[in-house]
Amino acid sequence: MKRAVVTGGGSAGHVIPALPVIEALQAKGWEVSFIGSDSGLEERLVTPLGTPFFSVRTGKLRRYFSLANLTDAMRIPIGILQAFAILGRVRPHVVFSKGGFVAFPVVFAAWQRRKPLVEPAAVLPPGLAN
């Protein structure tokens, strides 16, 4: 069976467009997992589809000065390590990213693991994570 990982989040705008992708892949017999944030709404949106959910810690980099940028920047490497481990367990054939700050650690780990990546960037200009 083919396996896919879908990632994205930080807001519903990054997750909701991924839901039809999950449904279409599942209808074609793919085993689909979702990687989202440990504090977001992603889990509530994807688990009703029967999609296994994994969370990673990650940080949001703001385009303005904030002390939160310092602490959030330290979370990104943790999220990359978590995503690297999850991808090792799930062993997807492809990673589909819908963007958002949650996707960065997963996309970086997929690149490190040499996994094919699909990222339909429908947002111009691209955000910091894209």
Structure report:
The protein is of the alpha/beta class and 130 residues long. The protein has one domain: Rossmann fold, CATH 3.40.50. Helix content is 40%, strand content 17%. The chain is built from five helices and five strands. It has a five-stranded parallel β-sheet. 38% of the residues are buried. The model has no long low-confidence stretch (mean pLDDT 88).
Present the secondary structure layout.
Blueprint: E1 3-7, H1 12-15, H2 19-27, E2 31-37, H3 42-46, E3 53-56, H4 67-90, E4 94-97, H5 103-112, E5 117-118
Parallel strand pairs: 1-2, 1-4, 2-3, 4-5
In short:
This protein has a single domain (3-118), classed as Rossmann fold. It contains five helices and five strands.
Descriptive keywords:
17% strand, alpha/beta, five-stranded parallel β-sheet, Rossmann fold, 5 strands, single chain, 130 residues
Helix content: 40-55%
The CATH topology turns out to be: Rossmann fold
Distance between the termini: 29 Å
The run of helices and strands is EHHEHEHEHE
**CATH superfamily heading:** Glycogen Phosphorylase B
- Overall tally of structural domains: 1
Describe the sheet with the most strands.
5 strands, parallel
Q: Give me the secondary-structure category.
A: alpha/beta
Kindly estimate the percentage of residues that lie in beta strands according to DSSP.
Answer: 15-25%
* Rg from alpha-carbon coordinates: 14 Å
Poorly predicted tracts of residues: none
Largest beta sheet: strand ordering: 3-2-1-4-5
